Each structure stands twice: as C-alpha cells, then as structure tokens.
C-alpha cells in the first residue's frame, strides 16, 4: 500500500470502517464526541484523505466512502513497525510482545493456533 495515513487521518478512516459510508457531517460529529475535534478540523482531515485517495466523496450531502480496507492499512502499518523498530524481524517483534505481559491460557492457545496454521 503506498498511501501513508497519519494518526489523525486514521481516526477519520476508523469512523468509516466502523460505520460504513456516511456523511462528512456524521464523521465530524462522531469525532467531536470521541476526541473533541471541531468540525473544521475533521473536514480538513477528510479533504486530506480524499487527496491521498483513501476516501471518495459523492453527492448529495458530502457522502464519504473508504477506498482502502482497514486490513490493508493494518498490514502496511505492521510492516512499517517491524522494519523500523525490529530490523525487519518478525520473531523479534513476537519476542517483545510475549515478554511484555502475562498472557492468559486462551491467548496462548490462540497464538498456538495462529502459528500452527502457518506451518
């Protein structure tokens, strides 16, 4: 994925991924409640996302549609994290995650299933 979204733009995208297509006004109202932004801030961010090709705008009512799926962004952000912080090493990332906190039996089982499905 070659679209780089900043954290503030990801908040706009999160509303679209969660709610589906909605108006800019709806997104602005949601982000006013969630993070305290004013409407102009949100509109500016929506326009930036449109310029980057992440959102498509249609009329009537400035309807917004996400052009990129959340999974694509998660994948790109994860790759960037692994490359930037863990020298491209997935096992270093895994070790860091596993060493940070106590995992429940259910979480350990889930991780075993994930690793098992890769073999």
- What's the mean pLDDT score? 91
Main sheet?
Answer: 3 strands, antiparallel
The residue ranges in which pLDDT falls below 50 over 5 or more consecutive positions are none
Structural class: mainly alpha
Oligomeric status: single chain
* Net shape: elongated
User: How many H/I helical runs?
Assistant: 6
The proportion of strand residues reads 5-15%
Distance between the termini: 26 Å
Radius of gyration (Å): 18 Å
Query: Helix share of residues?
Result: 55-70%
Could you give the count of β-strands? 3
Order of strands across the biggest sheet? 1-3-2
Query: What is the helix/strand order?
Result: HEHHEEHHH
Provide a compact summary of the structure.
The chain has six helices and three strands. It is mainly α.
Give your account of this protein's structure.
The protein is elongated and about 50 Å long. It has six helices and three strands; from the N terminus they run αβααββααα. The protein is mainly α and 119 residues long. A hairpin with a 4-residue loop joins strand 2 and strand 3. It has a three-stranded antiparallel beta sheet with strand order 1-3-2. Helix 1 packs across helix 2. The protein has helices at 7-19, 24-35, 39-52, 70-85, 90-100, 105-118, and strands spanning 22-23, 55-58, 63-66.
